[in-house]
Amino acid sequence: MEKIVKTDEQWRAMLTPEQFHVTRRQGTERPFCGAFLDNKLHGTYHCVCCDLPLFRSDTKFESGTGWPSFFDAVDERNVEIRRDTSHGMIREEVVCARCDAHLGHVFEDGPAPTGLRYCMNSVSLVFREE
Fold this sequence. Notes:
Metal Binding Protein, Guanine Nucleotide Exchange Factor, Chain A, 2 helices, globular, 3-stranded antiparallel β-sheet, 6-stranded antiparallel β-sheet
């Protein structure tokens, strides 16, 4: 997949300050306040920075963590997993494979069939209803 590369100034011009902080600076939105936490509509969640499809609504589940959670990606090639050792923890960061936007983290405590919990920031996503 061809990478999309932009300067910080270009990203700032197209994103809100919160979107920039989360996607370009590996920030995290507060729990239980994201726009997609309780979204029950049928559709696909895309990267807010480059519009790459990331997660389908039929893989979304209620994790109780305060962030939208999914048990599988649209395509494993659309997300990259990186080791994250920030904040005194070892976690697996999830980034968009096309533009390197920080999306959230993935954990191995999700439901079947994958056992994964992709814990995403709502501000990193755009929802396209089908």
